[in-house]
Design brief:
The protein contains 2 helices and 6 strands; from the N terminus they run αββαββββ. By secondary structure, it is α+β, with helices and mostly antiparallel strands.
């Protein structure tokens, strides 16, 4: 019984530490802005789309923080130029909001 109780306490400490790390990451990411460049066609519609994987990659490049693409809440892929508010859900009740701006890729 004592061993089980010790395992439970160790698990709770580990979960609390992970939760603290997620809360710290959320506070660092909150309000961040990233810019993605994309090729466009007529009416500023993108060739292809910007997905959560693209956002996760650019977030890692600009901030250095690794965020799993599954944690980025995107109702549907971004298909037009503009600014979008995106939520990153790091834990059950820990989330950060970032701004994603999609600009035209200059060709030439």
């Amino acid at each position: 019984i004592k061993a089980l109780e010790e395992q439970q306490r160790a698990k709770e400490r580990s979960e609390a530490q992970t939760r603290d790390e997620m809360a710290e990451l959320a506070s660092r990411l909150e309000g961040s802005e990233i810019t993605l460049k994309a090729r466009t066609g007529t009416e500023d519609r993108l060739f292809g789309s910007i997905t959560s994987a693209d956002i996760a990659s650019e977030l890692q490049n600009t901030t250095g923080y690794v965020v799993d693409k599954k944690k980025i809440e995107l109702e549907e892929p971004i298909r037009h130029l503009g600014s979008y508010d995106v939520t990153i859900k790091l834990a059950k009740d820990i989330a950060a909001n970032i701004k994603v701006t999609v600009t035209k890729e200059e060709t030439g």
